[in-house]
Write a structure and sequence with these properties.
This protein is 44% helix and 12% strand. The protein is an alpha/beta fold and 287 residues long. The strands form 2 sheets. A 6-stranded parallel β-sheet has the order 5-4-6-7-8-9, with helices on both faces. The chain has a 3-stranded parallel β-sheet with strand order 1-2-3, covered by helices on one side. The longest helix is centred in the last third of the chain and has 20 residues. The structure holds zinc ion.
């Protein structure tokens, strides 16, 4: 298949040092750098990008410039996290519900196409099957998703772990990003809600052999993802291709090529049909 979309990427990040990448745009987005990345996507035939957002406005500048490159570009303005939890490096945080509602409004005023929520921590690449922190409380997950919906937005949720994903799906979340360590219950809730799953395998797979984390853990993470992806597809969860480009070891453009190859190893001959169905579903709810 010709890859024409990356359903999860970060124009602000560089695939290497997130701190330096963020600092680079701190005083305002570097338009030249953003243009060079958009040109690279265009040259690779990519015409659709969905960004995870950033607090310095790089994704919003990219959205303005994207039509010059023939690219449809969706952004949440910035991702929203609960203060004291994962997401502060790239997003904006809330302490109580009033602050949360204001952030959703602000994102809308800045031109957000959807709301991106950080509901959980990351995979712990040093310990198989573990996450870096406890997820947001279930009641809060339901509330933040409901409120975004009430304000008229679809929700892209950074969400790992079965319990949080199940709760998010019960709230009708439109997409689950990463989705490490899901289980059948969570996947059925996602199937029922029509939630698109973007498993982002490249950031795990591309770490193998680097010595940064134990390969045994990375292989375990990929094995559980593989099993869950096969089950998800069997019960009708739309599984789509997003690379998390910009994350460590996931370069722009090359990231989505890696992601496609990884998904193809799992999905085989049905890969293109499955990925394009998920892309259609995603465009229907996010565009
Ligand atoms: Zn991401």
């Amino acid at each position: 298949m010709k890859i024409t979309a990356d359903l999860h990427m970060h124009i602000i990040l560089d695939g290497d040092d997130w701190k330096a990448a963020m600092d680079h745009h701190k005083k305002g987005p570097d338009e030249e750098l953003i243009r060079s990345r958009l040109a690279a996507y265009r040259d690779a035939g990519i015409t659709f990008l969905r960004d995870g957002g950033d607090k310095y406005g790089a994704c919003l500048r990219a959205k303005e410039l994207a039509p010059e490159y023939g690219i449809t570009y969706l952004t949440p303005a910035f991702p929203i996290h609960q203060k004291g939890h994962y997401g502060g490096f790239i997003g904006r945080g809330w302490g109580d519900l009033d602050e949360y509602c204001e952030l959703v409004e602000t994102a809308g005023e800045k031109g957000a196409d959807f709301i991106k929520l950080m509901l959980t921590g990351l995979m712990d690449f040093n310990n198989a099957g573990r996450l870096t922190e406890a997820p947001m409380a279930s009641d809060d997950i339901l509330t933040v998703i409901d409120e975004a919906h009430d304000q008229g937005f679809a929700v892209m949720a950074h969400c790992n772990g079965a319990q949080a994903a199940r709760t998010a799906a019960l709230a009708g979340v439109e997409s689950i990003e990463h989705g490490a360590f899901l289980n059948k219950e969570a996947l059925h809730a996602m199937a029922d809600a029509g939630t698109v799953w973007i498993p982002t395998l490249a950031p795990i797979a591309n770490l193998r052999g680097t010595g940064r984390f134990p390969d045994k853990v990375l292989e375990y993470d990929l094995k559980t993802a593989r099993e869950n992806i096969l089950y998800a597809v069997s019960i009708g969860v739309p599984v789509g291709a997003g690379s998390d480009a910009g994350a460590y070891m996931v370069p722009h453009v090359q990231g989505i090529i890696n992601e496609y190859d990884l998904l193809r190893e799992i999905l085989g001959e049905r890969t293109d049909e499955i990925l394009s169905d998920a892309e259609d579903r995603l465009k229907k709810v996010f565009c």
